[in-house]
Write a structure and sequence with these properties.
- α6 runs antiparallel to α7.
- This protein has a two-stranded antiparallel ribbon.
- It has 18 helices and 2 strands.
- Helices cover about 70% and strands about 5% of the residues.
- Among the domains are: about 90 residues, no CATH class; about 100 residues; about 110 residues, Serine Threonine Protein Phosphatase 5, Tetratricopeptide repeat.
- By secondary structure, it is mostly helical.
- InterPro entries: TPR-like_helical_dom_sf.
- This is Tetratricopeptide repeat protein.
- It comes from Ktedonosporobacter rubrisoli.
């Protein structure tokens, strides 16, 4: 099956999709050579060899490359092909930021192989640094608004980085593997926020794979990689009540593994995973002993948070007092401690920066759930409405799904026929009918 591919508003193709979910690059090269440039294979081989200061590639080599999709993985060689044929970088899995670099910086004009290698490694280092800066912008966008638009870039960027790491040295490989893991973690976060859990778990598996591939795996990176896969299962369960128990059971092994790696992690990561472990366990805590253990973990989290360097956050956790009190409140709600949770949410609101609107949407959703648990339906409806508007603004399908569950519980209550509850229910269904049971 073939598809059209949209790059910067322009449609290209159709091209088939390869196993990694990208355009078949051999088809892309042949299309631009034949249909766009009207160039013979022999001519492309000559221009390609000249650009790289190598012998010309034969006609047969070019045709074989196109037919069998054996496009070079080396970034410089892909850039050369893109330049000769006018191919948008994204169609060859290259990040658009590389277009800012003169291609001559990536090529060696001396006959000494060692010089060419040195220049290539310098370019690799520059590219990794540039991708690191881009990832920071992506996460900033995710926390401040939403990461939906950037999610489309992740596939191309990860392919680009994987190709780079296959041909670089150890000095670049180690930070590159960590960066690849973090890109896939961003993909996990953004996809799960849109309730695309299948896509989120694919990214999560890759994040763990790259984190474990380092010669000396970083404990913090392993903790956050396993956590983000575990919390994907957890959130899937929270928003699908029929499958809640099974999903939380799937989450627990990853959260337990993350907690075990945290023994050698930084205080920031120790505190973060203790908090999240407590949250997950709170949803299955039934005995006084279970609940006591949850509270112990929550307290441990606070102790670690108080000695953490919050500005040192290479894994984009954004662990802060605001997040601590918000998550602690969610755990208390899960254990039926509704009144206590409202006090924690008051503190969370006071200390959460105003430029994190998604967290304020979570705050109001939790308040709605707490007031519902206390049978204060007027307050519950007020906060459902507030959270709905905030969640729409940040495009949080996950939070909207939680709110849909609360709205349905309101409708099942003894005041379910209340005019305000029914009216808002109709308005909610009008914009998100997929979130409600038939």
């Amino acid at each position: 099956m073939q598809y059209y591919w949209l790059v910067n508003g322009t449609k290209y193709g159709p091209f088939s999709m390869n196993e990694a979910g990208y355009p078949n690059e051999g088809e892309v090269v042949r299309h631009f050579r034949v249909a766009v440039k009207k160039m013979r294979a022999k001519k492309l081989g000559e221009l390609y060899g000249a650009a790289l200061h190598e012998k010309s590639k034969s006609r047969e080599a070019i045709l074989h490359m196109e037919k069998n999709n054996t496009i070079p993985t080396d970034i410089t060689r892909r850039r050369v092909l893109a330049g000769i044929l006018g191919i948008p970088y994204a169609l060859l899995g290259l990040h658009e930021s590389l277009e800012k670099l003169p291609l001559t910086q990536a090529l060696d004009h001396t006959p000494k192989p060692v010089n060419r290698n040195s220049k290539q490694q310098s370019l690799d280092h520059y590219s990794i640094e540039e991708h690191q800066q881009a990832l920071k912008l992506y996460f900033d966008g995710y926390y401040h608004r939403h990461g939906q638009a950037a999610l489309d870039d992740v596939a191309y960027t990860t392919q680009n980085l994987a190709a780079l790491l296959a041909n670089t040295n150890a000095n670049n490989r180690e930070p590159g593997l960590a960066l690849l893991s973090r890109y896939h973690q961003f993909g996990t976060n953004a996809a799960r926020e849109q309730q695309n859990y299948e896509h989120a778990l694919l990214h999560a598996d890759k994040a763990i794979q790259y984190a474990r591939s380092q010669a000396k795996p970083d404990a913090d990176l392993l903790v956050i990689s396993y956590y983000r896969r575990g919390i994907t299962f957890f959130e899937q369960g929270i928003t699908h009540e029929a499958a809640q128990w099974g999903a939380i059971q799937k989450a627990q092994p990853d959260i337990d593994i993350a907690l075990s790696y945290a023994q050698t992690a930084t205080p920031l990561m120790k505190g973060f995973i203790a908090l999240e472990w407590g949250l997950v366990q709170a949803h299955t805590a039934t005995t006084a002993t279970d609940k006591s253990l949850v509270m112990k973990r929550l307290d441990q989290s606070y102790n670690n948070l108080s000695v953490s360097q919050l500005e040192d956050d290479p894994n984009f956790v954004r662990f802060s007092p605001g997040w601590y009190y918000l998550t602690r409140a969610e755990a208390l709600i899960a254990m039926g401690m509704f009144s206590e949770s409202l006090g924690e949410l008051e503190i969370a609101e006071e200390v959460t920066p105003i430029n994190l609107p998604r967290r304020f949407a979570y705050l109001d959703a939790l308040r709605a759930r707490a007031y519902l648990g206390m049978n204060d339906l007027d307050e519950a409806v007020t906060y459902v409405k507030s959270a709905f508007n905030a969640s729409q603004a940040v495009k949080s399908e996950y939070n909207l799904a939680r709110l849909a569950n609360i709205q349905q519980d309101l409708e099942k209550s003894k005041h379910g026929r209340d005019r305000e509850i029914k009216q808002f229910g109709r308005a909610f269904r009008a914009v998100r009918p997929n979130l409600f049971l038939s």
